[in-house]
User: What shape does this take?
Amino acid sequence: METTGDPGPIDNVVLHDQDNHVSSAVWDGQERGVLRCHEHTSLLDQWKLTAEQIELVGKAGFHYLRMIPAINFDSALIAALVERWRRETNTFHLPVGEMTITLEDVALLLGLAIDGEPVIGVTSSTPSLLCEKLLGRVPEDLTGGMVKLTWLKEFFSQCPKDAPVEEIECRTRAYLLYLVGSTIFSTTTGNKVPVMYLSLFEDFDKAGKFAWGAAALAFLYRALGNASLKSQSTISGSLTLLQCWSYYRLNVGRPRFNQEPNQGCFPLVLWWKGKQSGSRMKCNIVSYRKALDSLKPSDVEWLPYKDIDHTVIPEDIKNTLTLRASRTMLICFEKAERHLPDRCLRQFGMLQGIPNDVHRWERKSRAYDHGVDILGKMQYELDEWAMRRFYVVEGDDDVDEKEYMQWYEKITRKFVGRLTSVESEFKGKVEALNEIADMLGKFSEDGMDFQDRKLLDEVKDIVHKYLMDEVGDSPKKIGMKSTKKRKRKDDSICEDGQC
Assistant: This one.
């Protein structure tokens, strides 16, 4: 491929925000490196829940999320995936077409409900009053309507066995706030969570009726979109979901195991919790970028859940998977993001045609501070979520996917990194060898003992040999007598660029 070719998009009707995207900076040689990943799960196992608390956590809809252990993040892989994310479509733009994290993925990987009431509540309550009412105490620091995770852990992580019901409920709400604040709703602040989520845990039975999975996906979509801007250096949201989605779907950075993991477990994220070996955790972002830039259809698992044991999927989750391909609005308080399965139909076993145009929508600003009438600002988005069952995308057997790919190649960003041609790599290698030869030729042997001079001559011999092998002609003088390269029996003349 040409090193100076236009990476796209040729037509910016879809990717209209290319100038602000991180791929533009990378193309111009402005590397930002890996992103700082903010998911704070490492201390979750230090919370000691009683049987009563575990029951309440399950009622609230987090029975399976509670079971997911902390995983090691591959920051380079996450950063490379973000370079492919486009906030205009809420999809990854890959060489094989668009892909995304869907409602199906969040339901099966995290075990969260993707149907139910939208995760939105009143943000007009004063944070201190909310803490007093639902936690029984108020932290000294509530800057920006946020509470420190460390404060929650310090005061609520150990529940006495003989605690009264009211205290058990307060400590469980604190745990739930810590749980969502360190996983699905983690923020780039580092160790804080908005108090506004606390209002959703006042009644545990009502909490269990929320579509937590849809909210987690809305939050992650927003986090990916923000992180894809070249001005950003951090990412939050459920990075466990992001990384394990990639493990299931893409043969890039996927770890291997010492032994075959237990496939009969749920949620499916647990499939990756076994001891890993041969992992590519040491790959850098450039390596992953190249792998994604050259991704082939054979590197993609379009239907990774097809052969799993479906008896492990809880019935309540299985019954809602009809919504997996719903073209709808995902809601998490002020964060409303479009779920666009019609752009990724192959992930549902359908043929991919040219998708509908994406209508731009207003992304609301933060609503952490009290006094905000968030419900009044979100009526359009709430109405769209209410109609989710009527907009489940169906496939078309008459679709020509070649036509789709021809269209896609015009509207997408073909590659992120500059692709170096074979000729350029060869030229660069020879130039580097010649530079080494020049340095060795200028190296003074004055004051060297016999052993040092012998070592220097050996290095010169190595460089000389490599130059002869690569160039096929006399190398530059490097302070020693050159010898002509002897013609080997298998030497041949290249014709038309082929040997």
The longest strand covers residues 328-332.
